[in-house]
Structure formats: structure tokens, C-alpha cells
Amino acid sequence: MRQPLIIFWTTLCVATSSLAAAANQQLPLPAELEPNVRFWTRIYTEVDTRAGLIHDNRSLDVVYATIRIPKGLSRRARERLVGKSKKHYATILRRLATGKRDGLTEEEARVLARWPEGVSDKTLRSAAYRLRFQLGQADRFREGLIRSGNWIDVVRQIMIDRQVPVELAALPHVESSFNPRAYSHVGAAGLWQFTRSTGRRYLRIDNVVDERMDPEKATVAAARLLRDNYARLDSWPLAITAYNHGVGGIARAVRKLKTHDLGKISRKYNGRTFGFASRNFYSEFLAASWIDQDPERYFGAIQRARPIEYAVLETDHYYKATTLASALGVKFSTLRDHNLALRSSVWIGAKLVPKNYPLKIPADAVQIPFVTALANIPSRERLTEQRRDRFHKVRRGESLSKIARRYRVKERELVTLNNLRSRHRIRAGQVLRLPDDGRAPVVRVARIAPPADGFYSVRRGDNITIISQRFGVTPKLVLSWNRLQNPNHLTVGQRLRVSAPAVASAAAPRSASLTAPTSAPAPKTQPKETAIQTASASPTAPASSSSVVAADAQPEPSLAELPTGEVVIVAGNGEPVPLPDPSNYAVHRDDQVTVQAEETLGHYAEWLEISASDLRRLNGMRYGTPLAIGRQKKLDFSRVTPEVFEQRRLQFHRGLQEDFFNAYIVTGTLSYSLRRGDSLWYISNRKFDVPIWLLRQYNPDLDFGKLHAGTPLVIPVIEARNERS
């Protein structure tokens, strides 16, 4: 019975050795990882999704059993089956760990034989706690090989153009089995499985377009991310591992172990979040790459899908998807299936296909010349703006069906627009996005002259459209002058510039002791406890009782006042939540938090459901005293739990970052060495005009509390998105 297995492993070892010998210098196979590569080759080629392996999670060449999963078995039943098997082998390992070597049962002898001769009792004892189940992937990998033919040539060319090793074109086998519709339970999407936060650095992601789902655009983004990782780590094995674990975490491993050898890092590094997935990611890639280069060795004859040739139509107006399908003479389903980046809101009619959008149509499906097709569309269906968003705040006792009837929309539209997992799960206070049916009233506002200082305080009922009409300017100008990323995030009392700012003198000195930008004088009616906005504060942040400025009421934070953040926080469900920036948003054990950029005392009070004055008394703060970035503040959790506070805090920062990436995209990076007298505020707002949180995101391995002259910083280069819809 064991002979076929021996033959397979002999063949596999020979194949692995030959490939290892052929590995290029950019993508080496460390000796420590050879057993891991053999393991993943077996998972990808021998074991399908109807079976899995019980194995040691560190020594992957130690496999105890293959478990078959009966057809139709539920998830819970499968977990019980796997759990029973793991318990069985843990019991055997603990018995062997007592020193028992004689009088072994056949099963005990088989388990012991999986380990090298002379294995210690300590190793066996620890192995009892390292049992893991890995589901096979052979059938999925084979399907991915076939599917990859649609895009593999384009993916390889993009890698070459971006100076990334062409072998990395095989990485989608690991991420998605080359399925552009893939969507993970943690929200990673598309061929390259970008999370929303990472994807926003390079791609457009909003409620109309999600470019993670576009194979070509996502590949360009992946190549840029991998290249950025390499620029930081100077090693392709590390850059690839950072694609899974994050560049900051890998940089910390390099510093701690003083090596760029991924084999040693995988074996010795015990970082808090450096788990099984990160430890094995490079090995998975190597296995996938080698299989992709010679699939017949493992699967026999493989006929890959043919590349898809597209004709691309750039839309000249906003259109309904049904209008375009009809005008082009193509099936609606064809248009939808080949333009995956357009969200469901477009296909159900709640949103329009954006203007200047590159619409892909299979070349063999084109029946009418594009110019003719667009010319035949009636003028009433050539729209000049995207459908507006409307919102509804859920009241107690309301159901989704009741809300849908009230606004005369379909339940499925509400589910799609709001990414609801179920139409039965909404809560009081939740804000739902509504599709615009064209019946929303247009508000006409009498035009008045802008205030003398050029600033206007937002009143209840205002929005960007009303404000721009009131002062005779366009909404785009108001958004631009105030650097607003989200036009829907306005707060009563917020001060907006409504007339063109004066041009600053080009000869203005750039002193190291620059103060924060001077805003227009506050109205006489403004409360004494004003919201002092730092240069890094988002203009979309809610008005509150105090804002984040430097310690001791300095006008800007110095480099020494920012702490080193954490890569991961623990949210209310107890699960680690990866963040795109390294700031520590968790509550400390003594009910204190470290103040981060953009936060105010008013925010804390709102998230805690108490008054700002209570927080001032708790911390001995005088009325009007600003918070200091990097300092700690005591909080009162009498009304909400720390977990709820963390969730609200995390949601706020994610919202700020999403608003930013709605308006800007990172186009590259540059290096800058700190000079004497530089401050973080000056670098962020005067020198490079990027948010502080984004600087920290691109420098996660630096201790911002100990920066000094000569410290190299990676500066993201940002560019405004040309079209927003």
C-alpha cells in the first residue's frame, strides 16, 4: 500500500531538487524551505479539495495522515472530523514524549517514524500542540492553470514592464487560483486579493468602481506594490513575503535577526503576527511557480484558456448600463462579465457607468462601430453627472422591506448598495445609502457675495451643492480649496473656504520653526473652546472641543513626540485587525490611549458617549487645552466597553483614509533624508503635502519618537484622481 506514496515522494524530491538547482539568484530556494516547497507541491498537485493532510505546522515534511472528506459533509461536521483526528495524534505524541520507544503499537511506530531517528521527547511533546489540517488544492490549482490562459500573457508583460521578476506572474495561483471574481471572508478581492485598505493606495475603490476586480489594473497595482516592497527590503523573497505579511513586519524581522535570509527568518522569527500563512507564503509561491512552468509533469496535458482580445470604448457621458448594451448590440451579461470592476450598483441601475470609463467589449462581440453606437444614443440618455446618493438613518422597528417601500426602491438594491450580508440584519442608527431615482428635489439657493475673509461656517441643512450655489462657485472648487475628500462629510460649524485663496509669495522663507497655517479669523460667536486644526487634520473631521496639536500647545508636532505604533490592534471581536498604518489604536490596560493624529477630545467623548468636560476633569485638563499627539490620556468606560470604543475609533480612521483615497492615488515613492530643524508637520504639510498617517504608513519600521537628522524617510508621491463619480 505504501509503494505508490514512496514513488511519488521520490519523484517529487527529484523534481524539487532539479528546480532548486535551476532557481535564479533573484528567487533562491533556501535549504530550510525545501521541505515546505515539497509540502505545498503535494497540496497543489496530489491532494484535492475532498481531502486534506494532518501535519506538523513547523516541520511540514512531518505528515501524519490524509483525511478524506465525505461528500456533502457540513462545515461543522468536517471540523469535528478533523478535530477528532488531531486529538488522536496528539494523544500518541504525548505518549511517545514520555520516552516510550519499546512495545509500540503499529500506529505509534508509524507516527514516530515520521520524525528523524533520535527525536527528543521535548520535540514530540511540543509537536502535540502543533497539529494542523491543510485542505488539498489540486483540483482548484488545475482549474486555475486553465483559467490563467485568459490573462497570463498580460500579467507577464506587466511584470517585465515594471521590472519585477516575470516568475511572479504565478502568484495569483496562490492568491485566487486565477479567479478575478475571488472574494475572501476578510474582504480581499480579485485576482491579486487586495484588501480594501491596501488596494486604495494604487486603485480606485468606491461604490461605483472597484478596480481590484479588473485583472489588468490589479496586476499593475500588484507589480507596483511588489516593486515598492523590494525597494524597501532589497530582496525578492522578502518582498514576496511582505505581500502577505506587510513590509513593516518583515523589516522588523530583518532588524531583529540581522539577516536578509528568509530561510533563517522563517525558522527563527517569532513575531506576534508572523504566523503560518506568512511563514509559508514564499514557499507556496515557489511551488506554484514551478508547477506553472511545467504543469504537464503534474497534471498531464493542460489546455489553457485563450487570451481574450478586447475592444475598449471610453465613454463620453454617464450612461445606464442597459443603454450601452443596447446601443452596442451586445448582451447585457456580456458587458457585465467583462467589466468586473464596475460594482453591482451599476448593473442594478442605482449608479451609472462613469464618464471616461474604459469599457471592455470582447472583440468578437462588437457588432456596431463605437462612434456610430454612441451617436445613436438619444440625448436624454446622455447624462452629465453621476446619480446622487441619498441616505436614510434606520429607526427602531424599521425593516429593510419597509424602508424600500417608503423610497419606492427594491430591497436587493439596498442590499447591494450597502454591502449588506443579509436583508434581515440592519440596526437602529445605521445609515443606509439609497439609490437616486431622479426624483430628488433640486435646491436653488440665492447667490450672495463671499465673506470678506473668504470663509463660511457650515449651517444645519447645508451641503456642498447648496454652499457652492450660494457663493457662485463650482462644487469642485470648494472641494479643492478645502482638500475635502468626501463631499458628504460636513459638520455644523465647520469652516470652509468659499472664495479663491490668495497666492502665497514665492519668496516666503521655509523656516524650521514654521507655525501651523494661519486660517481666517474665527467668528465672534465661536465658542471659547475652539477646534484648533493642525496642518495634518482632515478638513472633513467633525468639529469638536479640542484638536490634536503638539505637546505643550506647540503649533506643530515635533518628530520626538510621535510614538512607535503597532502593526495590529485587537478589535471588539478579539480578532487581530491589520491596519494600513502602524499607529496604535488599542486601549491600554490602564484604560489609557495614545493620542493619534486627527483625533480630538470631542471624538473621544462621542465614542465613549460622555461629555468632553468629564474627560477634561478625568485628565486634569484646563478648558481649551489641546491634546498632544503621542501623549496618553485616561478614558472613562462607564458607558461603553473598550472593545466598542476601539471599533468606533478604528472606523473613524478607516473612514478618513478611505476619503483620502477617494480623491488621491499614490503614484510612486521618493527618498528624503531628514535635515536639522525638520519637523513632521513641516515635512507632511509644507514640504510634501501628504497626511501624517500616510507618512507613517510608508515608514512603519521607523521609531517616530527617535528620528534625527540623516534618518531616511520614504515619501509617497500622491496625485489627485482626475474623475470622481
Provide mean pLDDT, rounded.
81
Helical residues, percent: 25-40%
Distance between the first and last residues' Cα: 63 Å
Number of domains: 5
Q: What is the 3D form?
A: globular
Regions with little confidence, pLDDT below 50 for 5+ residues: 1-12, 18-22, 437-444, 503-580
Strand content: 5-15%
- Counted by DSSP, the helix tally is 28
Rg, nearest Å: 29 Å
Number of strands: 17
What class would the helix/strand composition place it in?
Answer: alpha+beta
Kindly report the spatial arrangement of strands forming the biggest sheet: 2-1-3
| Major sheet description | 3 strands, antiparallel
Q: Could you write a compact summary of the structure shown?
A:
The termini are far apart. By secondary structure, the chain is of the alpha+beta class.
Provide an overview of this structure.
The chain is an alpha+beta fold and 725 residues long. It has 5 domains: 138-299, Lysozyme (Orthogonal Bundle); 310-381, no CATH class; 390-434, LysM domain (Membrane-bound Lytic Murein Transglycosylase D, Chain A), CATH 3.10.350; 441-508, LysM domain (Membrane-bound Lytic Murein Transglycosylase D, Chain A, Roll), CATH 3.10.350; 531-725, no CATH class. The protein contains 28 helices and 17 strands. The strands form 8 sheets. Strands 2-1-3 form a 3-stranded antiparallel beta sheet, covered by helices on one side. Strand 11 (568-570) and strand 12 form a beta hairpin. Helix 3 runs antiparallel to helix 5 (121-127) and helix 22 (464-470) crosses helix 23. The radius of gyration is 29 Å and the shape is globular.
